[in-house]
Amino acid sequence: MPETLSNLYQLMDDTWNRIAEAYQFKCNGCKDNCCQSLFFHHTHIEKAYLRYGFEQLKPDTQKDILNKTKYYCRETFPVSGEIKSLKIMCPLNEKGRCILYPYRPMICRLHGLPHEIRKPGFNPLMGKGCETGLFDEKPYIEFDRTPFYQNMAQIEAEYRKKMKINHKIKETVAQMLLRSTENFPAAENPIL
Ligand code: SF4
Description:
- The chain is mainly alpha-helical.
- The protein has one domain.
- The protein has six helices and four strands, in the order αααββαββαα.
- It has helices at residues 5-23, 44-55, 59-76, 106-110, 146-163, 173-183, and strands spanning 93-94, 97-98, 115-117, 125-127.
- α2 (44-55) crosses α6.
- The model has no long low-confidence stretch (mean pLDDT 91).
- It binds iron/sulfur cluster.
- Iron/sulfur cluster is lined by residues 35, 90, 92-93, 98, 104, 108, 173.
């Protein structure tokens, strides 16, 4: 299995593209846009990589995105401990496209296709893919996310050890950007 984040991302993208092609599936955007879904991410290395991508943007674009992240966080987390899923567009989505597409986290990369997740001793957890019903009539093509999650956990553990990070995170893309830009100096590329 890949040992770096860039290799793992490449494998995810290749696998996703191969299976999407087998379904003859093309994501053209839809009213149930996945970039409006409330996803949490759990990896410091992906947060650092997203921040690194953010640093490559022009200052005006950064400012605009940070304003959107503040709005997103204010509306989604109005008071401590409360979470509102309001289908607010991710602050990185610009006119239907991800402005940090090469830097997007794992969940954004794996989303959309029917899939399974396996835990020892349990039946596979099946995900049915996009909300649009595109896959309802088609036979399932195996897409097991488990090795990707396992490999990501290994890469994250090594990164946390190297960076001496002891705490866990559960953050949306908006929170990742807002907190990392507020709390830390400009990030180095964590995947090189
Ligand atoms: S990071 Fe990019 S792909 Fe992921 S939800 Fe935001 S805009 Fe969409």
